[in-house]
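Inputs:
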Amino acid sequence: MRQGTVELFDRGTGRPILFLHCGEGLEPSLPLLERLARNGRVVAASHPGFGRSDLPAGFARVDDLAYFYLDLLSHLDLRDTLLVGASFGAWIALEIAVRSTARLRGLVLADAVGLRFATDETAVEIVDIYDIPQDDLDRRSYVEPQRWRRSYDAYSDEELMVIARNREAHCLYGWSPYMHNPGLRRWLHRIDVPSLVLWGEADGIVSADYGRALAAALPKARFATIAGAAHHPHIEQPDRFAAAVDEFLRGIGAAR
Amino acid sequence: MRVWQFSEQPYYPAWDERHESLRNSLPNRELDPAVAARLYSRYTDEWGLCDELGINIMVNEHHSTATCLTSCCHLTLAVLAHATKNVRLLSLGTPLANRRDPVRVAEEIAMVDCYSQGRYEVGFVRGGPFEVWPANSQPVGQVRRFDEAYRLVMKALTTHDRTFSWEGEFFHERLVNIWPRPVQQPHPPLWFVSIGPGPGAWIAEQKGTVGTFLTGRDSKLLFDTYRRRCVALGWGMPSVDKLAYMGIVAVAETEAKAKERAHAIAGYIRTAPQLAPRYLSPPGYVPTRIAAQAMRMSTDPDYVPAYVSVVLGDGSRVHQRTATIDQLIDAHVVFAGTPDQVVRQIGAYHRYVGGFGNLLMMGHGGALSHKDTVDNFRLFAREVLPRLQELPAVPYELPPERPAR
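Outputs:
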């Protein structure tokens, strides 16, 4: 692409589902993607700067990622696409959808960040992942942290490079204003496709109330929780996550 | 050799092993403002004594920390510019990438140079990894932001005939035209800091003085990188005046008393790394490959990172927080003893690195009392400082360049 080399997952046939990964990178989402590919064509890129995708010069904002994905949608000529975003990926999904829903059929937003609802400047809506101890971060992110947080010894040198790139890219886009775009909320009315706001019921990074506020702020949205998951239901509960997506597609009359 | 007295103006009353972190997260409830006010006054007096004794002055800055009460080099230097008459004043320095407005930095530099009648030497540093939290400074791309801020500050300091605007990657200015402008033309002497050898070549290109802190034997590699670049640019071997080393200095009539003083001052290096692990490695602060290697090495329980350790004569590394005074002397991080011993120790290090012309002396630190500080300064000025001027020049040939790892 114009933006350099892009690491791409492309599996299955049928309705296109464009998945946008969280700050942990693409790899932990693979079980969910395999599951979703049973019912459609699943496309997922490592966002520019993450994984093995190039970081184009000057990329520094989620705006850049939104335009990158609008380019990708047209590059692959995806139509009637279901956009599925997890955490940081859900922020990107919102930035894409406020710009154009022309190629979108619906949105699934899981444990989203990207917005500010509180008016008290000192209220913490999104826990600062850069200012809490690692074990606290793990407990807030996963219901079973010991299952998902592996020792660095378990990774190859190349995998550690990917982890380091993911951290850098996540920080580049999300450091400040911390994990949100102060101006995004005023454009949510432009998202004229049906949306499902999904939330891990034990999310310790962003509360379910934030998810409910997001659903209320979107023109056509429904809110649901996923049991047995915290901030990363797409990693901890891929089957429940995929079932919720299937049900959403049936509900909007868009199942294959 | 020029000597510069450096103190972090520590708020040592809040130092406690039980705090997880002395930086960033320690609530300022732990600081009694009345005590802080007395400490500032005391530290200013001690630097005033340096002016009488012919010891130059160096300050630095840190934020949100009990280790250092200087939160702006230029505020302290503005006070010292008035409290002193003779000696040179050095900031080492301003963490440029963490300042949101480089033009304001240029204004401060010009003001301090005017207040001090042209006695100011200006240093720029990148700042430690933990500094990005209180500055809310994006760690990814910080080196590029430092570079742009530096170019903007220099342009502001040296442009006198017209205003200019600046539209960069990080900084945007409509009208730059600083008042006052520096007494020293075209600008005060420049200093930079590096711990590793990497930035040595760039610092040489800026014709700056390169300073390094507590690096002991590792300093030689940095100084060689600097020298090599000067030679490659056709400038010949740089003067030793361009090389600076910061170590702890404690002198007394007896070795035992001097080591007691050194132990108190070394509270600085025992507390500097007392911080929560999350503040050590913000994403992007080091190159990706180094960050990945650090993840691998962090799984080794015996691994001591270079930035919190000192290298002993036998090549082994000891953690800063547990090193003894004798180990720190062995590592050339502390110079302590009777005046004769200290002259010998500094002389030996001088020979080891091929000569250096600036000793950044931490002669006060930690909980060292006012009386001990004053005695240390006076004895140093009387018995050590004159003899450092007599150190013979070191005939030095650059070693063959090591292949890059």
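Remarks. Chain B touches chain A through 23 residues (CB under 8 Å). The radius of gyration of chain B is 21 Å.
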